[in-house]
Design goal:
about 55% helix; globular
Length: about 210
Amino acid sequence: MIALVAAALLASACTPDEPRVQQTVQASGVQAMDEARFWAIVDRTAVHGSDPERQVEALRSELEALSADDVVAFRNAFEAQLARAYTWDLWAVAYVVHGGASDDGFEYFRRWMVSRGRAVFERLLARPDDLPDLLVAEVDGVLEFEEILYVTDEVWAGKTGQDGADMPGDPASMTMGREPGGEPFDEDPQHLAQRLPKTWARFGNRPLG
């Protein structure tokens, strides 16, 4: 219902004399997938977390077994989890770990969080400073996973014959234009060291990337 209302508002915002700009994200009327089913899929792919390409292919196989609408439902559920992780504390973690974090960088960090599976995601959501406890001693590369969400567009496009960029979504889960939850962080090292002591101790002077 929220998605349908949002679509109506977008349409009503254009006057008859204005061109209707193609929306990249459209309301589909497809509800987000049930959380238990969503996380079961993600957890089955997370066993390949040390090999991003293999995890992407594992997710592709999972999605290929679904209907086109279920692929949209999975994507909506993924976006809903990204929205849950849209907090200043987690952005501060990404900032410290990588020595900085743009909007896109924080998006890809949250995708990485989801890709680790439900247990890791929920722990970081509850206690962002626990991140160092969940990592191996030597981390290879940055904690980002941009590609993990693109496979949904690709599979949906293959099932429908449409362009993946036209894959419908749920505007209610979008974070664009919204403020993250919680208290903003200060980029001052002393502030970050106090706010995220474990994360700062490991990455403050040795960021990844």
